[in-house]
Amino acid sequence: MLSVKEYTYDTVIVGSGAAAYNAACTLKAGGYEKIVIVTENRLWGTSRNAGSDKQTYYKLDLTAGDSAEKMAQALFSGGSVNGDTALAEAAGSLRSFFNLVSLGVPFPCNEYGEYAGYKTDHDESCRATSTGPYTSKYMTQALEKRSFDFKTELHDKCTALLAVRREGKAAGLICLNTEKPGDPFFAVYHCSSIIIAAGGPGSVYSDTVYPLNHTGALGFMILSGIPMANLAQWQFGLASSDFRWNVSGTYQQALPKYVSVDEKGTEYDFMACEYEDKGEMLRNIFLKGYQWPFDVRKINGSSKTDILVYREIHEKKRRVFMDFRRNPEGFDGEDFSVLPQEVYEYLKRSGALLKTPFERLKAMNPSAARLYLEHGIDLEKDMLRVGISSQHCNGGAKVDVNWQTDIDGIYCAGECAGTFGVYRPGGSALNSGQVGSMRAAEHIIRMKRKTKADYDFTEEVSFLNSIIEKALGDKNTLGEFRENRQGEMSRYFSVYRPCEDTGRKAQELKIYLESFTRKNRIREKSEIRELFKNFDMLLSQCAVSSAMVYEAEECGSRGAGLVTRNGEIIGEKSGAGDYVFAQYAVFDGAKLIFENKKEPCRPIPERDNWFENIWREYRKINNIDDI
After folding, report:
1. What is the pLDDT of residues 497-537, one digit of tens each?
2. What's the pTM value of the predicted model, to 2 decimals?
3. How far apart are CA 471 and CA 162, in angstroms?
4. Which in 178, 220, 454, 533 has the greatest CB count within 10 A?
5. Inter-residue contact 201 to 218 (CB < 8 Å)
6. Contacting residues for 454 by C-beta, under 8 A, at least 6 apart
7. Distances (CA, A) of 78 to 74, 86, 228, 466
8. Does residue 538 contact residue 485 with C-beta atoms inside 8 Å?
């Protein structure tokens, strides 16, 4: 039995990324003092440790007559998106963006202060901006500094395990504190509000671009009874394997050569073998730059690249590489007239009509080339191993327009909130995290909830202790179990989803969950954190696989899921995008049942923007008296 240490706060924030720190800053700036951040590790997480060639931040276009209505429509049109959260993300985007600018995040502008933009995935407007490969890292560092300036309390080495309810409302949070790994204890937080900003479920797949130390908290939310939305919707795409980083943008626009290598070391120019028209091949490689996510609508276009890479790895058991030393077949690096017109024009305007892919990459985006060198991979000399990896979960907790879940007092912001739908514009997650965490914090300030410190959490602590006691044995089986389950998720629940296999594998996962402590054994207290991380992983995999099986039957192929039956592709059924696909985890005795349902999307609200009416309502909501 682990010991218990109790704390009392008004709000507990879970996570230490850009959304978590923004929530803390908003609360502190609003005069809300009794808060604490709990985090598994302050230096871990996706915000601080992930990016791309030029990591995108999505906001209103400041140069071309954009509006919140137009941006909301772009978010909403992706399918399975609620209109009220789409409007809130659009309306709050500039406020959040300029808050980051004021904190020193170096978004580029011209000498007159105009912030230019560019196009990103699933969007035709120039709403995207970037600080380079490390946009979210800069955001996190700036917001962290601001929160520390506010003297925000932070408890490190705290893994969230269970949010506790009383009378249908948030009452507390139980964490595993591993500051002393050999002597962990349960940290019990009495609180009236919880903001979960723990990122996406990075432990679900073996092939993933999530940082190695980022696992997320989807299982924790499911165990806490928080309803989910759109868990079948993910983004998958090409990413490097030895150093986890997605190879979008300039990495593709530089036109590298793709090759595969079998176990004997034989090399195959597999991409060239699939194309009679080499110009089409060059165009599809180029388009992967800003059409990075796999998309079933583009399997004969840019997403054909993903399909071919997947087959080489999973069907032919070969390793796949991008080679920046050599040009693809049909292009020698000198005769640029063979390039498709849009490819030629892009390279010409970028000053990159150069001989090799590496020279073109370095000319267009030197920091993208330097990034790999900083991690021991010299693209000028070495091939880059790649695969189809999970990069973002578009699903997560069901939330309302204030990013509050169905449980009063529990909020989710950032990637763990299920606001993104099927075809989210690239970079919209960073904006959503900022807007969602701001709105959650401001709602907490308005609600003025009171914390009850006399609730007894003995039953919940006993449940968690029982998992530890049942798992104690004479060997550690956690690593093998994790590797096997993640590998099967990447094989059967990635871009290819064969119905004959997915239903069977989803049932197997549920059996593993029912026998969790028999399959996951530990020897000593220092292994308890990893035990609970495996539990979180398996809960997440059960929920995701259940959602994918249900949605395959209801929708067919859409987004990143190519659904097949007996080798034939099942097309998308009409009207699927009009629904959010909700999931409710229900305990039936000792078993956890996942109930999946279709719920109509909430529309974009109709508003009365007459100034005097808004002014009156704003003063009322925020308790502002006339001066």
Report:
1. 999 999 999 999 999 999 999 999 999 999 999 999 999 99
2. 0.95
3. 18
4. 220
5. yes
6. none
7. 7, 10, 18, 44
8. yes
